[in-house]
Every structure is written in C-alpha cells, then in structure tokens.
C-alpha cells in the first residue's frame, strides 16, 4: 500500500494543500484513500469536514501523537500531512512508513533556510531507507526575484524538484469548500492540472523531470 508523506519543518508552506490534492487525486482514480493529519492546526481534518457528501470520498485517518502510525485496514493508499518540526524518532518512523516523501517549499528566504536543515536530516535517514524524496515549489510566480532565489537554492540540493505550482486563488477558493482541482471541471483549472502532471507521474514511480522541463 503506497504511503505518501508530505513534510516540511516550516509552517504555512502548503503542506495541507499538497496533501489534500494528493489524496483527492488517488481517490479520483478509484482508490480507498485515508488522509491522516498529525499537524496541531489540523488543517487537513478541517478540510475533510468541509468536503461535500457528493464529492469522491476520502476518509480520515485517526493519528495520535503518542501512537505508531498505522493506516486502517482496507486502505489502498494513505497520505500523511505532518506537523512542523518533524524530527527524531517521529521522523525515523515516518521514513520507515513512507513510500515517497513530498516536501513543499515556497519562494521565501525564511522557508528556504528552514527547509535546508530538514532536508539534510531526511537525506541522512534516507541512506538506510532509500525513500524517494521530491520537492514541490508552491505559489511560485515566474519572473520574480523570489522564484529565481528558490530555483538557485534547489539547484544546490540532492533532492529533485518534481514541479513548480503557480500562485493562484484556485487553491484557496476550492479548499474553502473541501474541494481540489480534481473535483471541478477540468476546463476551469486546465493550467493548474498541467502543472500537477509531473507530480502524479512521480508519485506512481516516474523519475522527476529535468530542471528545464519543471519550470
């Protein structure tokens, strides 16, 4: 059973946006998906409570801080939205559980510096677990200094960039109703769905795109 972990030590970088969209993608493929939330803010759980009954179902994953992370029986795909500051034994277990780890990162100098130490720790753990780790640039505005700084930073890392997602109100507006890009007419969000293609391909085992094709 694939377990996708979305992690970053910095709050407000887009973990819940990424986690809910990954869960919704798999649900729309006909899988029984559990979305777990161990973040204190419980953003993913709140999103689930807003999801309309007629939408493709995504079930909650009851995860407590003091217990081991074990997906419920019958789950075919699991997505875990992790808290800020994930490290130590908790990170050890997540690395053992995860099949792939997505790290969202916004083009902010504060986010960049906060993420570097975490990636170093993840890569140190990965030497034994070999879990694929991929970066996703969130709320990226092409042609800005911030976007250029982000791309210069990720070029120094051992972790591939899976995709860059543009800064758009679609994510905010849909989240307010418990929805994702996958839940609305494709014609409404065509450009955004195109940006998600390399992410869903990577989640299913494809290599990350080359730097030139991910911009």
Automatic annotation (TrEMBL):
The CobQ/CobB/MinD/ParA nucleotide binding domain covers 4-180
Q: Which gene encodes it?
A: parA
For this protein, the record's CDD domains field holds:
ParAB_family
User: Which is an annotated Pfam family here?
Assistant: CbiA
Protein name (record): Cobyrinic acid a,c-diamide synthase
What organism does the UniProt record list as the source? Caldimonas brevitalea
| Family annotation (InterPro entries) | CobQ/CobB/MinD/ParA_Nub-bd_dom (IPR002586), DNA_Partitioning_ATPase (IPR050678), P-loop_NTPase (IPR027417)
At the highest ranks, the source species' classification is: Bacteria, Pseudomonadati, Pseudomonadota, Betaproteobacteria, Burkholderiales
Which superkingdom does the taxonomy of this entry point to?
Bacteria
